[in-house]
User: What shape does this take?
Amino acid sequence: MVRAHPRRSASVNTDMSTDPDQIRAQIAELLADLPDPAQEGSGFDQLADSEIDVIAARLEQAHELLVQALESVEKG
Assistant: This one.
């Protein structure tokens, strides 16, 4: 279901790109192996607490990445 290995924090990236395709690719990479709650039989309702924590951390990293991209656009 969900790999429990840590990802590099989006907040560590000091070279923030404002290229939409690159940002989409980074978000897709962060979220690639997360279960899709919209799919039948995804098992989303049977996740362990540790898996939910991993999902929450990934979503937070994706959010941070988007916030940084918006900040870069506003500055640039």
